[in-house]
Amino acid sequence: HTVSAVTTSLDGVWLEADHECILWCRQLTRLLSSLLVRLVDPHTGLDTRPLPDRLAVFAAPLHSPLVSLL
Question: Residue 3 and residue 59: Cα distance in Å, rounded?
Answer without folding.
Answer: 37
